[in-house]
């Protein structure tokens, strides 16, 4: 039988089946090794998946890791600017893609507490003229991977600088102490505190990730992938240079952020679907539960240690029907698979939910086990009065 290689996509009748999941095929050991970076997450690996595996996937995709623990383990949560995070990612790309150092080895370095030393040793084996610019940067920023008290102090100093930068940008005095700044922010109305936190991130070239509370209210949940999130973050960075902080806060509180974009000549119609963005930004008081479902579905267990499900999500999307954790995880995986599709339409899923037809709608898009019909039941449609 002719099958397709899961790595190179070449078709052949002489492929070897993966011995772990027995669901995919490869034309050579090289292809299997190449595909393992992604396939480990859907296969049945003989060892636990580590944060180094998540790092390897981010390296392969040339994207910042989204997994919270991975960011902690490999310094991304201590690299406070997009420039530094990009250089850190480039450093790991050199190690894992160019030098072909496997995730298992990287994880071993970290566990043994020798990550910094081994990175230096790996790059020292390369002639200086071929090391690129990331390694010299790393030698000047080793504190990013250092968890000693001195390094923590330097990291905290950078975090405090982020707060101060946003404070001054929004009209605060440069002479205000950090204590005064934090106390003043804490006394602001909640919406204004939320906007100030966004400014703190934007001015450091960050954007809210799926595990962050700001991911939904500012519309990042409508993005299909991280590149779109970065694009939207860039639009916000442009916007805050064209309006006052009070104008931004007023627009956020009154669900008029889209109007503020338009009034300042900033188009938000591409590549992010405008109707999704409008749905979130123009109805922030009554955000549809489908966006909270998306956040719950795509977050890893490490990002949601308590396994908390928003009540509206539990009711609207069937998690209240789950009798054990394995059913919660299975249902979550179905929804995650849906949201990862390029043609996923969250608003269509919402419409299916309020009409009581989640199983029918998702079943038209993907093959579903009959058990999900029970799990996806909800109280809708509500009886008419």
Question: Could you explain the architecture of this structure?
Answer:
- The protein is an all-alpha fold and about 375 residues long.
- Helices cover about 55% and strands about 0% of the residues.
- It has helices at about 30-40, 50-60, 70-75, 80-100, 105-110, 115-125, 135-140, 150-170, 180-185, 190-200, 225-240, 245-255, 255-265, 275-280, 290-300, 310-315, 325-340, 345-355, 360-365, 370-375, and strands spanning about 5, 10, 15, 25.
- A two-stranded antiparallel sheet has the order 1-2. A two-stranded antiparallel ribbon has the order 3-4.
Give a brief rundown of this model:
By secondary structure, the protein is mainly α. 53% of the residues lie in helices and 2% in strands. The longest helix has 21 residues, at 149-169.
What's the story with the biggest beta sheet?
A: 2 strands, antiparallel
Termini gap: 59 Å
Question: How much beta, percentage-wise?
Answer: under 5%
- The backbone outline, from C-alpha atoms, is globular
What structural category do the secondary elements indicate?
Answer: mainly alpha
Low-confidence stretches: none
